[in-house]
UniProtKB/TrEMBL annotation:
One Pfam family of this chain: APH
Entry protein name: Aminoglycoside phosphotransferase domain-containing protein
SUPFAM superfamilies the UniProt entry points to: Protein kinase-like (PK-like)
Superkingdom of source: Eukaryota
Coiled-coil annotated residue ranges, if any: none
Aminoglycoside phosphotransferase domain ranges (all copies): 62-286
InterPro entries the record matches: AGP_Transferase, Aminoglycoside_PTrfase, Kinase-like_dom_sf
Amino acid sequence: MEWDERAELAHDTLCDEWFSKFRAQRGPTTANWVSSFRSGHPSEIIEDHCGSFNWSCRVRFKDSVEWLVRFAVPGRVMDGDEKLRREVAVMCLVREKTKIPVPKVHAWGLSNDNALGLGPFVMMDYIPGGESLGRLWREGPNDRILRSDISERDLRTVYRQIAGFYLELSKLEFPNVGSLSIRDGQSIHSDLGPLTLKMQEIEAHGGVKVGGILREQPSLVDDVNDARAKYKFRHQANAIIPRFIAEEYNWTGFRLMCDDFRYGNMIVNNERELEIIAVIDWEWAYAAPYQMFCSAPRWLLIKNPVFWATPYGSEFHRYNECLELFLDELAREESERNKVKPQPELQDRLSDLMRKSMSDGRFWFHELIYDCFTGADNSAWKAICDMYPDIDEVASIPEPELDKFAGRKMKQLAAYKAEWSAIKARIDREQAG
């Protein structure tokens, strides 16, 4: 057991309430509201798009200009205002300071700014004629794995562009960890606490803040053995942190990372040319330690490494094949840029550091940091245990401590099951009568 059904129900209810309010105003009411942000130019909604966290409307003005109007949906997003203000700051900064193609933001506002009462919103350029690279390259509609028939030429075409994006992002340096914000409507600072995809998902599906998943989430465990295993796993994971924190990365500041940076959020012009014309969905972006920025990309196979069947099986070997192509293109891009503007040879190149993360285990360590509902049976932890077979010795736990934790979780689980059973019974009665 992992998710809290009570939290799921509460969030689904919030989502349904929002959609009822939206449907009541979709059409001329919403179109007129959008027009007010463009000097009253007449407009109409011509299409809707449903995302994981947002509902978007494609709006066409009378002069054929098109915008995408996006709403953060309550229940799908835990704090829409905080999510959106961070995302807009990132979009504006990346568009202004890099060559990464990011849609232009025309207007945005928090819940209090929305005259329709539909919560936080952002209005940006609509990208016409493009296709999601994730949809083109995944094995099937429901398969989160990279197609096996993609040519090396096509892979290199895309990797060359993404390598350039990484180098562009590497130029953005921040003095501290944190999310970005727009201050005074103009200047951008990394002065907000990080808002990560992990924080969002644990609260959305676990019903607790990220720091409380082990001790506070009542549905985290299935039984006594599961409780003991998860406590032991988290205790050991915390104990080995010093082995993976490298001071050699402290020579520089923090870099911008996006938890949702992947094929699915890259829009290409067509399947043949594969020119990336837009990179979208920057809401889970934040300034992070340079060490994490230099980790090998986790999105190369679409399926994240923590979900691979084994740490060193067929998925790992295929990942390595893709990684070598990507690092080759990254090294080429680094060399080309160095010819135009020579860089000091004081530190390793990004391509070298990404390769190093595979050999020193930090690639796997970072996977543990990213993941939300991980037990000890995941591939990242297995890989780390292979590297450090002494983990049980250096991070042993007294049996009474394990028993105490397991006993507490069993009481939580029993109370949770009783409460959820009562809720389901009430719902059944309401539906029946």
